[in-house]
Amino acid sequence: MDETKGRYEVILAGSGGQGLVVSGIMLAEAAILEGKNVVQTVSYGIATRGGFSMAGVIIDRDEIIFQEVQNADAVLALTEEALEKFRGLTAQGAAIFYDTTLMKSPPGENLHGFPFTDMASRMGHVGMTNIIALGCMAKMKGMVRKESLAEVVRKRFSGDVRAMNLRALQAGVDLVTG
Predict the structure, then answer these.
(1) Which of 27, 47, 6, 28 is nearest to 133 (CA)?
(2) Helix (H, G, I), strand (E, B) or coil at 129
């Protein structure tokens, strides 16, 4: 974690079934492993799979008083709807990460497009898209260390699924570190 920045506010948004809630929980758990205070919230429509889904995560060295993201530092938008909904936050300095496999590259500052779904598909399972994106975003923004996310993956998954998700996490980090 970038020790010069004590607080991160993150939004993960897209469609139900894309693993965004799990990604939010994993990000929160990684921050807890690093001794940070964390709040994680979830919002989704009636139709969980396929409907709009969003997770918010606040990571702070200090006590967290208000439990909703107010000043997002980063947004992961995995659908056009999510990108359009949160795109205006770039004017306030938020970095928006989006999937170029699913969306056209929109013009603008603070927009970071990566082929998350295409990479996951080539790695053998599109269900790893969220882990690739989480690794990329966490590395680029310095929210938590890769080692902390890897520890969460090791605790949450087992066997082949664990190995696949650890490879997906590394693939996301490699998008930033080249």
Answers:
(1) 27
(2) helix
**Domain assignments of the chain as residue spans, ordered by start:** 7-177
The secondary element (H helix, E strand) that includes residue 39 is strand 37-44
Query: For each of the chain's 178 residues, which pLDDT tens digit applies?
Result: 445 578 999 999 999 889 999 999 999 999 999 999 999 998 866 555 668 889 999 999 999 988 889 999 999 999 999 999 999 999 899 999 999 998 887 778 899 999 999 999 999 999 999 999 999 999 999 999 999 999 999 999 999 999 999 999 999 999 998 6
Q: What whole-number distance in Å separates Cα of residue 112 and Cα of residue 34?
A: 26
Fold of 7-177: Pyruvate-ferredoxin Oxidoreductase; domain 3 (3.40.920)
